[in-house]
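Hi all, posting the design record for the shared folder.

TITLE: backbone redesign
STEP: 1 of 1
STRUCTURE INPUT:
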């Protein structure tokens, strides 16, 4: 929904920008199977959507009836997020927002059943959704189909239903229920000397900075274990050298950090010429050429 003039100053790729320049999208529905008290987005993400220039939020006040009271004792982030949704649903749009030619809205208690094709079968014309009611309350409430269905018209369907990490190797412990490697500060439980980080450590939430902070926490654990003499650092152990020889035996040429720095420098230089932070190279062959592979 962002206008091209806003997007072209970001690090969006040239090909994505060209595709979006032809976009006819005027309205986006975010559809969730549960209610406003269970939304997965953050208040920062909601604010960004509310403040999208040229786009109007469409929230049905009826979806929020009585929620102000229900959320009074909820944890602060959930409370503030719900209050912002309520405020947006109830307030009269500013003049420039009311005149916006694009809009986005939230549709609750609807679970997707089927993507409906156009008569010639070449495109989507909508989604059949099952209406749901909530069983239980708060984060653990479950969406149960009421038996009613509804067709939601649309020309494009994007699914966004989260992620689940997969087990790496039978030798590495894995909790299939939560999709994580059981760990304490990154130390894999039951496997001394093995560490994990990122979504497989914490579950699939958060942005790159969250993942970075996670890695610092794990690295700290490794350093502590080194200092405490818990890790086997005997000279007989090959360490990274072992990985290098496996890769060589398979004919793989790894990309080093300094290789990446060369690609980064070219992307940043190309971006500068185009008035954006970087022009991302999207063809792996071109990246490898740049580093002489
Ligand atoms: C659609 C989407 C958009 C996002 N946009 C943003 C954004 O704009 N800004 C932002 O800050 N965050 C964004 N995020 C969040 C960000 O991508 C994650 O926080 C971050 O990538 C998690 O890092 P990770 O290292 O845990 O996992 P990943 O980045 O998923 O890395 C895991 C790696 O392990 C590899 N792997 C898996 N199994 C094996 C195996 N058996 N052997 C070898 N390798 C394996 C995978 O190929 C992958 O490269 C986005 C997430 C999604 C899903
Ligand atoms: N630009 C960015 O910075 C960016 C972009 C994308 C993602 N991310 C980050 O990546 C993380 C993951 O994001 P995500 O959006 O992929 O996942 P998410 O935040 O975990 O949200 C997944 C949503 O899908 C719903 N869902 C799951 N299974 C479903 C099903 N079978 N039927 C109907 N609904 C279903 C969930 O509803 P229930 O709660 O009912 O299960 C939930 O609302 C987030 O922390 C996000 O911040 C960041």
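Okay, here is what came back for every position:
SEQUENCE:
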């Amino acid at each position: 929904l962002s206008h091209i003039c806003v997007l072209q100053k970001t690090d969006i790729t040239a090909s994505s920008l060209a595709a979006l320049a032809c976009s006819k999208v005027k309205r986006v529905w975010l559809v969730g199977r549960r209610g406003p008290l269970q939304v997965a987005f953050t208040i920062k993400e909601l604010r960004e959507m509310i403040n999208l220039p040229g786009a109007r939020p469409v929230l049905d006040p009826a979806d929020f009836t009585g929620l102000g009271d229900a959320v009074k004792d909820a944890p602060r982030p959930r409370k503030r997020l719900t209050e912002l949704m309520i405020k947006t649903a109830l307030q009269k749009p500013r003049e420039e927002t009311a005149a916006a030619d694009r809009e986005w809205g939230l549709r609750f208690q609807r679970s997707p059943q089927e993507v409906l094709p156009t008569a010639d079968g070449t495109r989507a014309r909508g989604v059949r959704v099952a209406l749901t009611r909530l069983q239980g309350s708060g984060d653990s409430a479950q969406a149960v189909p009421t038996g009613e269905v509804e067709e939601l018209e649309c020309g494009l369907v994007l699914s966004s239903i989260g992620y689940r990490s997969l087990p790496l190797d039978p030798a590495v412990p894995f909790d299939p229920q939560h999709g994580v490697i059981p760990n304490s500060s990154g130390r894999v439980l039951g496997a001394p000397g093995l560490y994990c980080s990122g979504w497989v450590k914490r579950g699939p939430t958060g942005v790159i900075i969250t993942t970075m902070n996670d890695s610092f926490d794990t690295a700290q654990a490794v350093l502590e274990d080194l200092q405490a003499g818990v890790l086997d650092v005997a000279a007989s152990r090959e360490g990274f050298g072992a990985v290098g020889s496996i890769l060589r035996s398979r004919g793989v040429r790894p990309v080093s950090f300094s290789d990446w720095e060369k690609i980064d420098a070219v992307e940043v230089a190309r971006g500068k010429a185009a008035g954006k932070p970087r022009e991302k190279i999207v063809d792996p062959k071109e990246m490898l050429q740049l580093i002489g592979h």
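COMMENT: The chain has eleven helices and eight strands.
Let me know if anyone wants the other runs.
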